[in-house]
Amino acid sequence: MFGGHDPREPPLAPASLPIVGHMFGMMKSKFNYYVDLSKQTDAPIFTMSLPGQKMYVVTKPELVQKVQKMHKVLAFPPIEAKFSSTVCGASLEAQEILDKNTNGDEGDHGLSMETYTAMREALKPGALLDDMNRKMIQEIAMSLDTLQPAKGQSRRFGMYTWLRDAITMATTRSVYGPMNPYEDKSIADSFWEFESGLISILVGVLPWLTARKPIAARTRVAKAFEEYYRAGGVKEASALARMRYQVEVDNKVPLEDIARYEVGGSIAVLVNTAPSAFWTLLLLHSHPGLIEDIRKEIDACTETSSPANGGTAIKSLDIATLKENCPLLLSSYQEGLRYTSMGTSVREVMEDTYLEGFLLKKGAMLQMPSRVIHQDAGLWGPDVTQFNPRRFLAEEKKNRPSDVCFRAFGGGKTLCPGRHFATNEILAVVALFIARFDMKPVGGAWKHPSTMNTNVAAVVMQPDDDIEVEVMTREGFEDAKWSINLRKSEKVFSMVTEDNTE
User: What's the confidence (pLDDT) of residue 308?
Assistant: First the structure.
């Protein structure tokens, strides 16, 4: 298909074995393999030859910026269309609809382009996003109410399992409304069974045989969504769910396929938020002295009101206030993402083209792994492999690289549209948890679990094992009731460089 290596192409990365060496390397080292190769090649872009596929890997942020500006010839939508159809098990009819004007070469019409537009509109800072966020944070508050131990007691549970269940319900209720299919725990469990088997669906040999369980789980979730749409559940859903559904109806996607594609949509809204919250809580609690400093910030933002009749005091937190007045919390959150993100922005080379003098051949794939940039000591300094909670403070700006080097949410045309929603959800969970509870590991010491089984669709490392924790209500807060709010704010928390131009 591609022939040999053209000397005009980016330099070849060394492989331990001919043809299959890189495949074995990725299987062994997973998301760290690109980091290892970038150190060996010391090139801004290099070539990996895989069986039947050629891959270019970009390692420098300045080259990433140039790739993002070439979004027509180095395109993401065609890849997403193939991924969506394969992962969701879409019919041939739906695939044909999705394949029409996928890359927007004929304008902004068609299922692919209109879906992007709808999602960006529903998820940008403003009234539509605020409506979703307010519903979500109330659900988070209720989950934390049910977690609170009886007075003088403690509670033990798996931290990741609890976070995943709480965030799954808070997110899906805010997105899908009162008829949310995930209210049925068996459907939520089926989704996570499907998610855990994604790799076998994507690259397995004879997936109908080798991936029977995740495919069956996917079918159960899709059927639940089909019933949801037939019952009119989407009419009471968020703007995100309504607008995405309307685009599919307008493009004449069969209802069964709208349901199948929504299973894929659930990957986008669910898979990365729980591990992000998990790592944030774990890193904050395991870093000496940090939890006390962050708790002071949060306590300073907490308002206490006592009813006139002498009833229970109500403590209130506001997410907008937290963003404006908790710089260490926000810095720790961003640093946690830098420390644990391993997503890769992928592009397809649509025609032979040149990038910084290097020939990129039509049909090849181009990858921009965030971890390569996030682990570059030349950019971030000698402590790059360590969690430094103060790295993103304003006064540390001179000691870190430009904002374009922070790649946790991708960038350019494919910048994650849900970053503001996810950030609000994670901050709500983390801040309210820290304000209300004292937590310690059951084993006596905080240990970071391995992450080698992280799913192919994830952009944040997923823990291989849960951490059992013991939680008690903070001393002096046993009788308090909690309220969490989101007031309107014109200030957008700048997570990525693009946020400064919105």
Answer: 67
